[in-house]
Design brief:
Length: about 250
């Protein structure tokens, strides 16, 4: 009966997993996710669990905790931006041939709840909004790096330096909600709908430099085949609408 239920669920999702009928083994997968990809990864993990019967847990760690997990487990998959993934591959932490791009997250702009929303509809309007803000905040991660590149392209690095706060822990949007700065910039998918803030929109044109994330199987995985199944699901057509629910775009 359980097998029939799993097959029915997979068919409803439109995705049939290899070897599903009669599968006796269900794995427990752990995905170590980067902050920017986590909302989409959790959405996909829930759908994959329903379709396959495999239990999927998504964790978000950094520093020593992440290092310990990568070295000792338990962990099966990791999602991150391309540069950290490449660094892990060079250290032998990733199964060769499993690195798979799966999502792009646009940059976003937000203000504190109730504050006037600036016009960012054009590059010139965006530039004016940055100059008008008493303080702006962004991170040192992928989104922060890309925001800084845009500011440099606008010729505003020095003009905004004294008014810029770079966050070092937690989402930028959380610091914005606390009033640490007036204008927050990070990935849209972790900015929309956060209490204490109002989302403004995506920066215009070349100022929107999306952050890509890839997924890969870790060498410490005890369930590499189930992990590969998860990757196949993450890049399937059925995954695309689930990712878009979290304000990101699947990689084409």
């Amino acid at each position: 009966m359980r097998s029939h239920t799993r097959i029915a669920t997979a068919c409803v999702l439109g995705f049939v997993l290899p070897g599903l009928p009669g599968a006796a083994h269900t794995a427990e997968l752990i995905i170590s996710s980067n902050q920017g990809a986590t909302p989409g990864v959790r959405e996909l993990a829930n759908a994959f669990t329903r379709a396959s019967g495999h239990k999927v847990t998504v964790v978000q760690e950094a520093g020593a905790a992440l290092e310990k997990r990568l070295n000792e487990g338990p962990a099966d998959l990791i999602t991150s931006n391309p540069e950290p993934i490449e660094a892990l591959a060079q250290k032998g932490k990733i199964v060769p041939g499993t690195v798979t791009p799966f999502v792009l997250a646009s940059l976003g702009v937000a203000v504190r709840a109730g504050a006037p929303k600036p016009d960012i509809s054009t590059v010139e309007a965006y530039k004016a909004a940055l100059l008008a803000a008493k303080s702006i905040g962004y991170s040192f991660g992928c989104s922060g790096t890309n925001v800084a590149k845009g500011i440099e392209e606008l010729g505003l690095t020095e003009a905004l330096k004294a008014r810029t706060i770079r966050t070092t822990s937690g989402p930028v949007i959380d610091a914005l909600a606390k009033g640490d700065f007036e204008l927050g910039l990070q990935q849209t998918n972790i900015m929309v709908g956060i209490p204490g803030t109002d989302y403004v929109g995506i920066p215009p044109g070349a100022m929107n430099k999306p952050c890509p994330s890839s997924v890969a199987v870790l060498t410490v995985s005890k369930n590499p085949e189930a992990a590969r199944e998860m990757i196949r699901f993450m890049i399937s057509p059925e995954a695309a609408p689930l990712l878009r629910k979290t304000h990101v775009e699947p990689v084409k």
